């Protein structure tokens, strides 16, 4: 009990003394976990939206569509509807495909359905504004209406005739807008409009490929079996050309809108964690001196190494849980705004379940462990007497041979290489962080290298692009933080070495240059490794749709820009540090 | 206080720093018996190994060789963790540089050893209150070390050292960083402890400290060169040798695990 109080007390003082570190940890890990959580939840949002809309509109299990408007086709539809497996139906009703809709000066392609004024049993579009059909009025599918900025009372021109918009409604008989048109084949950006059958008939022209449609609900959820069962009888008559579209296909078409964004965000969450790590570990080492001093004092009064390690680990675990909670909360908010990409579906609330929370917490804890394990072990292990002085564990040697080689180099290069060789872990983390940034930048370049996307993919890729853009922004911000922190912690870490160098005549300029040069080898390696990783990830996410790779010079230029950016940002703390007077540093070390 | 006749016993205690050419024998084959209740002062020039000896006696460092008993228990082979547990109850340290935990208030510093030893928060708090009162710092209990003067810090450190009523208090130049007025306060506290029968080992340059001790040991190059009993000299023929080796061969009887 007493020991628990003590651990709590020490953690509290730590958090109070290093608020910047705590806040940055929560922000960085929160962003990473939040991104991951959003990525993992997006699939559920569209599914839930679809299910909610389907339930609210009594959505059909199967849509049956004819190619023409032949009596034989209508008869065939009727016979399908009479099958015992059918529990409910709407139609057959007439429809026109590829009609031109003009509104507010825009011209769009629309599928027009001729429906009754009374709500049907199956596919009863849910009116979200205005009212359902009346003669002379049009009801516009909500996703389409949103894209056209249409409101109830606006006027639209459809195949040459003008109608007032009397209502706006949602349905699951078609996929979400764009792609809502009940057609066969790609017809992206085709929207859906309902008219009364009486209003539709005068518009009918062969170019609008008039046909019949019918929606069915089935007793057996196995839609595929039903589709297979009706196929032979439909094929018997060569005049009858009928297509069917099952619920699964429609739902899938809706879900796919966010499929790439999901992958991008999930991968992005992990990349953010990797990129954040270098900065967080760098910040954590900034306080090693203070932690060591305190550990020495605690040990002298009888604290075990275990207790010392516990204090450090526990505070990072606390921070990790706070960050995970912040991430999940942010994800909840984000998902409610960006998780419902289509107005074509109702917005269902999406609780973030354990399936998301567990991996998200795992990511946060992993970062916490990687950040704190090194310092915790070092602090716990340092002999008490050395630890009380607060500067132990810093006497680092360079790999044998390097010292000899660097002796012949110009001063800044020599200092830079010595500093780089001192801390391998820092170099690895820097390289990993830069690799993460290089990967998304390569992804962006890939994006721009693709030929103009085909219309069918545009919407999906637009969402993906926004996700990619957000991830890139966050990663670049993190990498900038890393670049500053890494040089800053190198400067603090090596302040004795650098002070000695200056005492023996190195100028502040040479020391600055050395500090700036130190992380550059790791940054260059990171950029070189990250670019191909980015291309690979892009290929994985986009599948067969990656048809071009960016020109090599783009990649080289981006890599060079990254390394130059690291150097420029590192110059800030390096310049500040190199200006500090030498004597107090040497003094402080000998105490 | 403690039933064992000797608070500390050391045989051939040795501690080396560095290797080969840079090897330093900071403590070189020292034998030492500190009877319970004795105040022992250790003096010697800078670098002669006084601090190292004190660290060894308190289990802050482990000896390179030799044997060490605290309250009759052999401790030289203990793990880092076991030594930490031992220190909580048996040893209280007072350092020249105070070494208070900077982030904790005076009272929280004094509570530390009790909390580490598993005392309840209430008990630890109560004990800390008593001790701060004893060192005359009740009114400073909520201050952080940075807000205290050197003398006040050292009195807090002494209160902290006493928190678990340790077998022995080890003090390394406790007045070394203090002005003479503050040093006098601290010395008065040590004198009180001596009169209460607290076993004390004080490393010092300060004649006044040495003057209040029961016994004065002088060190040079890691070894004792003089051992003077000012009070309570040991009985028997060995006293004539200046008390240099009072133990029986093979270590304290019946206590060697
Ligand atoms: N960690 C260490 N590494 C190397 N040498 C040390 C270390 N600690 C102490 N020494 C050396 O051991 C000798 C004794 O030191 P110390 O016990 O601090 O002496 P004193 O306290 O009497 O001034 C000195 O020569 C000192 O340089
Ligand atoms: Mg000393």
UniProtKB/TrEMBL annotation, chain A:
Stretches assigned to the ABC3 transporter permease C-terminal domain: 270-383, 473-574
One Pfam match: FtsX
GO cellular component, as recorded: plasma membrane
Subcellular location: Cell membrane
Source taxon at top rank: Bacteria
Keywords (A to Z) from UniProt: Cell membrane, Membrane, Transmembrane, Transmembrane helix
Membrane topology summary: Multi-pass membrane protein
Gene Ontology molecular-function annotations: transmembrane transporter activity
InterPro entries named in the record: ABC3_permease_C, MacB_PCD, Macrolide_Exporter_MacB
Segments passing through the bilayer: 20-42, 267-286, 307-331, 351-371, 427-447, 467-492, 513-541, 553-572
This protein's record includes keyword Protein biosynthesis: no
Domain MacB-like periplasmic core residue range list: 26-230
Protein family per UniProt: Belongs to the ABC-4 integral membrane protein family.
Entry protein name: FtsX-like permease family protein
UniProtKB/TrEMBL annotation, chain B:
Domain ABC transporter: 8-246
Keywords, in A-Z order: ATP-binding, Nucleotide-binding, Transport
Coiled-coil positions: none
Record's keyword annotation contains Nucleotide-binding: yes
GO terms for MF: ATP binding; ATP hydrolysis activity; transmembrane transporter activity
Designated name of the protein: ABC transporter ATP-binding protein
Taxonomic classification: Bacteria, Bacillati, Actinomycetota, Actinomycetes, Micromonosporales
Example of a GO cellular component annotation carried by this entry: membrane protein complex
Listed SMART domains: AAA
CDD domains from the UniProt entry: ABC_MJ0796_LolCDE_FtsE
KW Nucleotide-binding (keyword) present: yes
């Amino acid at each position: 009990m007493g020991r628990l109080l003590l651990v709590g007390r020490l953690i509290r003082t730590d958090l109070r003394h290093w608020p910047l570190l705590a806040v940055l940890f929560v922000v960085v890990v929160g962003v990473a976990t939040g991104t991951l959580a959003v990525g993992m939840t997006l699939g559920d949002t569209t599914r839930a939206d679809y299910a909610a809309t389907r339930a609210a509109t009594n959505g059909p299990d199967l849509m049956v569509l004819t190619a023409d408007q032949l009596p034989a086709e209508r008869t065939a539809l009727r016979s399908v509807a009479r099958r015992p497996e059918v529990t409910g139906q709407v139609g057959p009703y007439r429809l026109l495909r590829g009609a031109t809709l003009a509104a507010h000066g825009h011209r769009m392609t629309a599928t027009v359905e001729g429906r009754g004024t009374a709500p049907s049993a199956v596919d009863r579009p849910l009116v979200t504004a205005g009212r359902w059909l009346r003669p002379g009025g049009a009801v516009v599918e909500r996703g389409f209406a949103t894209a056209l900025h249409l409101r109830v009372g606006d006027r639209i021109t459809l195949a040459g005739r003008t109608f007032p918009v009397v209502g706006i409604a949602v349905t699951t008989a078609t996929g979400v807008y764009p792609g809502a048109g009940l057609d066969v084949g790609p017809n992206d950006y085709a929207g859906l409009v309902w008219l009364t059958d009486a209003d539709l008939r005068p518009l009918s022209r062969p170019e609008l490929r008039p046909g019949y449609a019918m929606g069915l609900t089935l007793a057996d959820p196995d839609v595929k079996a039903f589709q297979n069962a009706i196929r032979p009888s439909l094929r018997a008559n060569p005049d009858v050309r009928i297509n069917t579209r099952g619920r699964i296909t429609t739902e899938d078409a809706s879900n796919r809108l966010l499929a790439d964004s999901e992958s991008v965000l999930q991968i992005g969450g992990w990349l953010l964690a990797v990129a954040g790590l270098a900065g967080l570990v760098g910040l954590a080492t900034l306080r090693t001196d203070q932690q060591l001093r305190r550990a020495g004092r605690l040990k002298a009064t009888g604290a075990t190494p275990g207790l010392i390690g516990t204090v450090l680990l526990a505070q990072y675990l606390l921070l990790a849980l706070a960050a995970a909670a912040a991430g999940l909360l942010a994800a909840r908010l984000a998902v409610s705004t960006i998780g419902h990409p289509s107005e074509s579906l109702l917005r269902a609330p999406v609780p973030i379940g354990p399936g998301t929370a567990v991996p998200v917490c795992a990511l946060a804890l992993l970062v916490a462990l990687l950040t704190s394990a090194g310092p915790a072990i070092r602090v716990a292990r340092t002999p008490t007497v050395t630890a009380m002085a607060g500067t132990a564990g810093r006497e680092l040697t360079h790999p044998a041979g390097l010292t000899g080689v660097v002796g012949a180099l110009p001063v800044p290069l020599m200092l830079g290489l010595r500093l780089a060789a001192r801390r391998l872990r820092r170099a690895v983390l820097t390289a990993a962080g830069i690799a993460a940034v290089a990967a998304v930048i390569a992804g962006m370049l890939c994006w721009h290298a693709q030929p103009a996307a085909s219309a069918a993919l545009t919407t999906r890729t637009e969402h993906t692009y926004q996700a990619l853009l957000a991830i890139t922004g966050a990663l670049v911000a993190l990498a900038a933080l890393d670049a500053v922190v890494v040089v800053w912690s190198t400067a603090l870490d090596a302040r004795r070495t650098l002070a000695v160098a200056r005492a023996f005549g190195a100028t502040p300029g040479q020391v600055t240059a050395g500090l700036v040069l130190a992380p550059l080898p790791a940054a260059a390696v990171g950029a070189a490794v990250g670019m191909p990783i980015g291309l690979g990830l892009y290929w994985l996410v986009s599948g067969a749709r990656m048809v071009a790779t960016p020109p090599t010079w783009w990649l080289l230029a981006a890599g060079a820009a990254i390394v130059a950016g690291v150097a420029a940002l590192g110059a800030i703390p390096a310049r500040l540090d190199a200006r500090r007077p030498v004597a107090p540093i040497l003094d402080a070390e000998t105490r | 206080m403690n039933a064992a006749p000797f608070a500390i016993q050391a045989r051939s205690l040795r501690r080396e720093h560095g290797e080969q050419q840079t090897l330093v024998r900071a403590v070189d084959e020292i034998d030492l018996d500190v009877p319970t209740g004795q105040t022992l002062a250790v003096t010697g020039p800078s670098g002669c190994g006084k601090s190292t000896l004190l660290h060894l006696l308190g289990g802050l460092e482990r000896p390179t060789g030799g044997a060490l008993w605290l309250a009759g228990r052999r401790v030289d082979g203990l793990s880092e963790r076991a030594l930490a547990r031992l220190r909580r109850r048996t040893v209280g340290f007072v350092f020249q540089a105070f070494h208070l935990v900077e982030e904790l208030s005076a009272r929280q510093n004094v509570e530390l050893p009790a909390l580490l030893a598993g005392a309840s928060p209430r008990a630890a708090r109560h004990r800390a209150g008593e001790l701060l009162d004893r060192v005359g710092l009740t009114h400073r209990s909520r201050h952080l070390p940075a807000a205290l003067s050197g003398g006040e810090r050292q009195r807090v450190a002494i209160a902290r050292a006493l928190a678990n009523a340790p077998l022995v208090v080890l003090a390394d130049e406790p007045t070394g960083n203090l002005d003479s007025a503050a040093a006098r306060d601290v010395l008065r506290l040590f004198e009180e402890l001596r009169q209460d029968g607290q076993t004390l080992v004080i490393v010092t340059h300060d004649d006044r400290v040495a003057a209040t001790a029961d016994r004065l040991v002088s060190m040079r190059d890691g070894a004792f060169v003089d051992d003077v009993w000012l009070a309570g000299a040991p009985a028997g023929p060995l006293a004539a040798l200046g008390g240099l080796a009072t133990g029986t061969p093979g270590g304290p009887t019946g206590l060697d695990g």
